[in-house]
Amino acid sequence: MDLVLIVEILGLALLALVVLVIVMVTVRRSRLARSGAVSVSWRFDVSRAGHGWVLGQGRFDGPNLLLYRSFSPLPMPARRLSRERLTLGERRCPAGTEADLLPVGSVIITCTDGGTPFELAVSEQVSTGVLSWLESLPPSSPAHRRGSLRRRD
């Protein structure tokens, strides 16, 4: 085979792969939007200020908040936060370069998931939704009896 033909075939295969990934990401994001997903960013490495933010969508699914990466073709969530283990903490405005990385009007909420600290960046409306979702935990649940669903201020 001619070297030029091999390069052309490899180039076309690479182009087809890129187009396939773009289509998969677009279809996934569209399905999430139709299912009521909200824009949310998160970071689990809170040791470095302003670094490690992941852009994505969050979808409430019963007792879980499912976090999906924006630019991943995978259909499964990147993180699953349990309502029983999630505690909301202080709120703050984006600082430094975070204002450039996060959506306009984001508020950052310091949280813990079973003792693991992380941060969520959401709009004011989504922040209210997350708090309502947390407070809707049934009174008979262990987390409700422990009082762990209250905000730490």
UniProtKB/TrEMBL annotation:
Segments crossing the lipid bilayer: 6-27
Keyword Membrane: yes
Membrane among keywords: yes
Keywords per UniProt: Membrane, Transmembrane, Transmembrane helix
InterPro entries the record matches: DUF2550
Protein name: DUF2550 domain-containing protein
Species annotation: Nakamurella flavida
